[in-house]
Each structure stands twice: as C-alpha cells, then as structure tokens.
Amino acid sequence: MAVSVFFNFAGFTLIIPVLPFSVARYVAAPDVAWWVSLILALYALCSFVAAPVLGALSDRFGRRPVMLVSLCGSALGFAVFGVGGALWVLVLGRVIEGLTAGSISALYAYVADTRGPAERGPAFGMLGAAGGLGFMVGPILGGALGQVSLAAPLYGAAAVALLNCVLVWFCMPESHPHARRSVRLHWGQFNAVGQLLRALRETRLRLLFAVVFCFALGGTVLQANLTVLLKDLLAFQPGSIGLVLAGVGVMDIVSQGFAAPRLQTRFGERRVAAAGLAINGLGLAIVALLPLHAIVPLLAAGIAIFTFGDGLFQPSASALIANAAPAERQGEVQGANQAQQAIARTAGPLASAWLYGVAASAPYAVAAIVVLAAAVALTRES
C-alpha cells in the first residue's frame, strides 16, 4: 500500500513545476493564473462526479478493480496533457484524469478493510509519509525533466501511473471479501450529491466532513496559486519550484510518518487533528506575508509550518472518518469524503485566482481564516 501511495503522489507532483509554464504557451501572461486555476478546478469538478461512483463500485466489486481502472485513467490523462498542442487538449487531459480519480479513496477503504479502529491512525500516517516521499521525489524529477521539455514530466507521470497499476495487479490482493460487499447497486449511489447527503445523515460524520472541507479549501487555495506566486514574485523556474515542493515532501514524512502516530497515541486523533488545523492555518498566514516581504526564509517558514500541520491533520481526520463509517459502507463514505473535498478543490482555485487579482496576499489570508475557524470548531467539539 505504501509503495502504491508513493507512486500515486510522485506521479501527480511530477507535473506541478511545469503547469504554469505549459499553460503560458497558449494564453497571455496576465491570464496564466486564471487558466491554471480553471484547469485545477475542472479536475476537481470531475473528481466530485466520479469519486462517489467509484467508491460505491469498490463496495460492490472490490477495491482492486477500482484502483486499476483509476490508475489507467490517470496514465491516459497525463499522456493527453503531455501531447498538448492546444489549450483544449490540456483541459481534456485533466478531465480524463478527474473522471477516473478513485485510487486514493479506494486505498483509504483498503486500509479500513485491513486494519482495526486502533490501527487506522498509524496506518494512515504511514501512507501519508509514503505520500510525502512521493511529494519530495516527484517535483524534483518533474523540475529536472521540465528543463528538457515541458512535456517530459507528463509522460513521466503517465509511466509512473502504469507502473503503479502493475504493482497493484501483482502485489495487492483484494481486501473486500464477497461476504461484505453490497448486494446490489442503485441509482442513488451514482448521484454525487445524494451520496454526500447520505453520508451526512451519520451524525458523527457531519463535523468531520465540515472541517475536512475547510482544510481542503485552504490547502487548495495554496496549491492552486503557489507556483504562480513563486513564478511572479521570486522569478522561480521549474527546477526551483520543484525544490520547494520537495521540501513539502520532507516535512510530510516528518509529520505524518513520525510525529502524527506518536501524538495520536498520547492525545487521540481528534485533538491532534485540531492542533494540525491550527498549525496549518498559521502557515497560511505566514505565506500571506510573502508579497509584503519577498524573501526565501519567510517562504520556507510558511511552507514548513503549513505542511507540518497538514501532516498532523490528514491521518488523524482519515482515521476519525474511517472509524465513524459503517463497515459495509467504507467505500461509499470514503468516496463521499473525496467528493466533498472535490467541491472545495473546485471552489478553491477559482477563489484563489479571483483573490490573487485583488491582492497577492489575499488568497492565503482568506484561507488562513477559514482553516483557523475550522480548528476552533473542532477544538470546541473535542
């Protein structure tokens, strides 16, 4: 599982350093931030439609087939984006990838299938550390390949997705036995909004989903705009952007792989999640100061603090949601969780592009307020 997550994140982050430069070939310079945000938002919108469907299908047919289909779709989407030639081709590539974006929710359901409630927090932390390693390797490799050709990272990402597919085929047995699978599918399971509302009928999931939504919204604002900010403010090239994102991966390994499991054991997942949100919001607030003081140490401090909070929150929140979900609906609930995060990832890039036009600090300041408000809500509930 950890190796699969590593490949998943490495493949996804391969393309990040070159994304604004790829878009800049087809649009005027003032429009780059808007089009980068729009492409990310379209991907998230397609994920919103697809994630609940793929989650329900994993409950009915097993986790493994969904992971295989999703990874093949990612490979195709990356390859189409790499071919390029026109802006609409870039959009098509991201739409294909978004409509098959079910590998992460299937992997999370896989963890819930194979781990008891007390083991899920550390297991999600281990997967997060593996993702952090992928996040470290992917941007460095993507930045290096981007120096050769803007298309090279896309083809590299497609190759990584296919390699991950081979790994799942040969090394990951099915975790969801026939006896626990859904007896039948119904049309309500293919309705993203209906499935999300069904998950929210579980009282224990409502606040958790709300704070995860706020976290995803704040994080997406940064992810959608950071490469543009670095390009505009500090004149970073793909290689330099790749090194910044590699630093994110290093901090993810530290926080998710080492800090989170130890803190969860001592303080419990809910308190660690609340602390992670507060730290994450502080990091966003520091990044908001960067346009006022464009210095690399301030950038490094903000990104490090943001990522450390991210690493504490994500495995803790994943464990809380998995433990609150009924066993026979793990795939559906994980899919609904990915769907509501997709709503945040659709709104986040668009809000980020608009706010960036108002002031370069605005996206990060607003995101910090949203995330800190979620931290307060979760702390009060604790």
UniProtKB/TrEMBL annotation:
Q: GO CC terms on record? A: membrane
Q: Which residue spans traverse the membrane? A: 7-28, 34-54, 66-89, 95-112, 124-146, 152-172, 207-229, 241-260, 272-305, 354-378
Topology relative to the lipid bilayer, per the entry, is:
Multi-pass membrane protein
Q: Which InterPro entries match?
A: MFS, MFS_dom, MFS_trans_sf, Sugar_transporter_CS, Tet-R_TetA/multi-R_MdtG-like
| Superkingdom per UniProt | Bacteria
* Start and end residues of each Major facilitator superfamily (MFS) profile domain: 1-382
Pfam families annotated for this entry?
A: MFS_1
- Asked whether the keyword Transmembrane is assigned, the reply is yes
Task: Please provide the record's keywords in A-Z order.
Answer: Membrane, Transmembrane, Transmembrane helix, Transport
Where does it live in the cell? Membrane
Which coarse location class applies to the principal site listed for this UniProt protein?
Answer: membrane
Which molecular function GO terms apply here?
transmembrane transporter activity
Function text? Resistance to tetracycline by an active tetracycline efflux. This is an energy-dependent process that decreases the accumulation of the antibiotic in whole cells. This protein functions as a metal-tetracycline/H(+) antiporter.
Return the PANTHER family for the record: MAJOR FACILITATOR SUPERFAMILY (MFS) PROFILE DOMAIN-CONTAINING PROTEIN (PTHR23504:SF15), MAJOR FACILITATOR SUPERFAMILY DOMAIN-CONTAINING PROTEIN 10 (PTHR23504)
Protein name, as recorded: MFS transporter
Task: Provide the species name.
Answer: Massilia cellulosiltytica
